[in-house]
Amino acid sequence: MTQSINQPITLAPARDRALEIRALYEVLEQRLNGKVWSLHELMLGFSHDVGTIGRLILAHDGTWDIDGDVAGQLQHKLAESLWWILVLSDRLDIDITEAFTETMDRIHAGLETAVRSSGTGR
């Protein structure tokens, strides 16, 4: 079942792990490029992965041909996209746990109202 609207949500362990991985990337970027990726470069990386997910979804549905394990590639790219979100939110100084919780609470309340007001017709 779904988590109650009043239960705390924490993404802190995932964020901490994501930032640990990002720190290793930054060591390599500094050594290889003389600088770490800018916010703009991080966003381009994330955008590229989102595009890849789109093609993998098409492959999953049978409308795009991709070699290899589509389910495995989707699993990897979806997890990697979560990593990008955690990294970007940190770089932007956004508390992603707080933002996620507040956003889901707001959406939940709006949907409950819409469901109640829509009645049972249809």
How would you characterize this protein structure?
The chain has helices at residues 12-33, 39-60, 70-91, 96-118. The protein has 122 residues and is mostly helical. It has one domain (12-117): Helix Hairpins, CATH 1.10.287. Helix 1 (12-33) crosses helix 3 (70-91) and helix 2 packs antiparallel against helix 3 (70-91). The mean pLDDT is 94.
Q: What is this structure, in a nutshell?
A:
The chain contains four helices and no strands. It has helices at residues 12-33, 39-60, 70-91, 96-118.
List keywords for this structure.
MazG-like protein; 122 residues; 4 helices; mainly alpha; Helix Hairpins
Outline: flat
Mean of residue pLDDT values: 94
Query: How many helices in DSSP terms?
Result: 4
Number of domains: 1
Helix percentage range: over 70%
CATH level 3 topology? Helix Hairpins
Task: Provide the CATH architecture.
Answer: Orthogonal Bundle
Following the backbone from N to C, one meets helices and strands in this order, namely HHHH
How much of the residues is beta strand, in percent? under 5%
Stretches where pLDDT is under 50 for at least 5 consecutive residues are none
CATH superfamily: MazG-like
**Using DSSP, what is the number of strands?**
0
End-to-end Cα distance: 25 Å
> In this structure, how is the largest beta sheet organized?
none
Radius of gyration: 19 Å
CATH class, anyone? Answer: Mainly Alpha
Structural class: mainly alpha
